[in-house]
Input
Amino acid sequence: MVDPFGLPTKDSLGRVLIVDDEADVRKAANLALTKAGYQVLEAENGERGIEILNSEDNPFEMDLIICDIRMPKINGIEAISYFRSNYPTLPVIVLTGFPDVEMATSLLKQGVTDYLVKPVEREKLTLAVANAIEKRRRGFSD
Amino acid sequence: MNHVFPKGIPAFFLKGGKRVPGQPVKIAILGGGRGGSDLLEVLTRSAGTEILGIADKDPNAPGLRRARELNIPVMDNVVSLISNDEADLIIDVTGDPAMEQLISERKAPGVEVLGGSAARLLWYVVQHDAHMHNQLLQAEKLATIGTFTSGIAHEINNPLYFIMGLAEDMGDEEDLAVIRGHARSIVLGVQRISTIVKGLTGYTRVTSAEDLSNVELNSKLDEAVRLAQYATVLNDIVVVRGYTACPMIKAKPEEIVQLFVNLITNAVQAMDGKGTLSLSTHCENNTVTVSISDTGPGISKGLINKIYDPFFTTKEPGKGTGLGLHIVQTIVRRYGGQISVASEEGKGAAFQLQFPRSGSGL
Output
């Protein structure tokens, strides 16, 4: 978690929301990120992800969203649109099983911070997460 | 598909140049050996022809068996078929030299005859057509699976990620219980991927020549849904099932799955991965009816007559083979069935298939 001045607070390196309809995928990401020192919340679809985000008193409490594209009930693309327009300072990383250059380009244009393809190694994931949160922190101090 | 006449042999070629529009050409087939059987296949695929009957001295001839499955009248008395005055054309593929004499003696006046060398030529053409057609069916299956690549990648990459994550975690884990738990989960992940691969290879394998069996349609619909889920990136489709326990039909199971995969894939793609797919079966008397409908954009009136044409497609190039519905119609006709579609622009499409139940031709 980072405080409004961009300094990490003592509980963790940051709070990450992982949105994916597969429990196995959420578990794999959770294992990697928790070991790396992040606090992880899980949502099984876009709708639930939006619920969790909106239930936070202070939207700055969430530092990053990791989201898949292919999900039922508000698919990833719609969810990502929602996150980007309602929480523009909250970085989004796409984690998908479907490597598509066209889609990646269009998502990156929409302001998604990174586009990762499963299966992704821990190091790659944690590096992408660290970079995204670092960018956000710098955004605050500008 | 007949390459010279994709829509079937035009009626005016068969009725001595005198065109009789609207009336199918009525054909009597003599000879139920290999020649008769393949001829039946080609003619049932062709619009504008009606087979009055097929006859052979041997009641167990393959052509006669096939005819019974297609509800075509079968006779073991060749003479009564020859003298049938409803026929427009008699095709003699018996290979029996005495047949020519018998036909000219007993046929009704005005009936045309295709025999001798002409029939032999027809036989070669039909063999070629039958062979090409089977190649086409197989090619279409492979092409369809090709269009599923991104969906398949997604389905396999998810469990792969799970396996990777667990394995990486095990690498620096000391707690034996956790390690064992991860190991068990990895095995499950592998099995999941294996199931996906089996589904795909099961679908693409080449079916052997004479594999007709009793096919239960509800389970084939479910099998097709599992494969068609790979057709789109988004997967927000509600599947509504209204199945009835119905009699089985006589068919090659793989072809029935192929036909359902095509219809369901079309529905899923029309809805762009989001909407309601309704599948239902019901039966009455001797037929089994399957309905497949979607909540997509529907088919416009102007296009609805073209949808079964080979290579007709409204999809962008590279997305889909354009053969799906042609194959569907081919397979339906092959098993003596009928297909119809109800659709309006903006209101989705509903396909209805009717098949004769197994054993109803006997």
Q: What stands out?
A: The longest strand of chain B covers residues 274-284.
